[in-house]
Design goal:
The complex is a heterodimer of chains A (101) and B (135).
Chain A lengths: L5 E11 L2 E7 L12 H30 L7 H5 L7 H14 L1
Chain B lengths: L3 E4 L1 H12 L6 E7 L25 E2 L2 E5 L7 E9 L4 E10 L7 E13 L4 E10 L4
Antiparallel strand pairs in B: 1-7, 2-3, 2-6, 4-5, 5-8, 6-7
Classes of the chains: A alpha+beta (101), B mainly beta (135).
């Protein structure tokens, strides 16, 4: 991770009347590419795609949780965990969140 | 709007001055950010729109301590609980230096979406800055 020797991580939790509305966490960007083979480039592209999708997932999850702050919604949308662990699952969750809104 | 975080160039300079024993101020204050922000090294104290509303404005953090991420005491950890005194949407938060009116932004975090806080809502934040070999 290229961050000039200082790595920043963060977390935040929004509570309404003491109850968690939504929890955030930092998502680390993919490490800078360090080799020149095609396989290496392909892995980096996949990692970058996955990073972008995970960021989108968290964005829509947060909007969904805030919009439905007083309703009963799946806990993983409020807590952010477990997050989808593959590109395909992440895309499915994004579509699901966009449909539910 | 992406969820991003970054240390800043003016933070690097302040840290370098502290290590060299020159006039500088340590990490101390936190403040919520009011407008859409992008976390990158070029952000500055003057450049971000800080909240002035009750409960989310500039304040001394509840705790500023060192902790271990990889080796003992390699991380500066800032913890704080904001309690909104009125309805406001916050877009992120920053960590600042210890002056009556701070002038250095050490690190910034921008949320993926605005957080609409109502009166008495709390926002618990934690920022960790780990010092390690850069790449």
């Amino acid at each position: 991770m290229a961050q000039a020797g200082i790595i920043v991580e963060w977390g935040a939790t929004h509570r309404h009347n003491g109850v968690i509305v939504v929890r955030f966490a930092s998502v680390a960007p993919p490490d800078a590419i360090k080799c020149v083979s095609l396989g290496c480039l392909w892995r980096y592209l996949l990692e970058s795609l996955r990073y972008t999708l995970v960021m989108l997932y968290h964005k829509y999850r947060i909007i969904y949780a805030e919009t439905h702050r007083d309703e009963d919604i799946p806990a993983h949308y409020r807590m952010g965990e477990p997050a989808p662990d593959s590109v395909w699952k992440t895309v499915k969750e994004i579509v699901r969140l966009r449909i539910r809104r | 709007m992406a969820q991003t975080q970054s240390p800043t160039k003016e933070g690097y300079a302040e840290i370098a001055k502290l290590v060299a024993g020159e006039a500088a101020n340590e990490v101390e204050k936190v403040c919520c950010i009011k407008t859409s922000c992008t976390a990158n090294e070029d952000q500055t104290y003057a450049g971000v729109t800080k909240c002035t509303e009750s409960g989310v404005s500039m304040v001394a953090a509840d705790a500023v301590v060192t902790s271990q991420t990889t080796v003992a005491n390699d991380t500066v950890e800032v913890d704080h609980v904001f309690t909104a005194g009125e309805s406001i949407t916050v877009l992120g938060f920053g960590v600042f230096n210890n002056l009556e009116t701070p002038d250095v932004l050490f690190a910034i975090c921008c949320f993926a979406a605005g957080i609409p806080l109502e009166n008495t809502d709390t926002l618990t934040v934690e920022m960790k800055m780990q010092f390690k070999l850069g790449s």
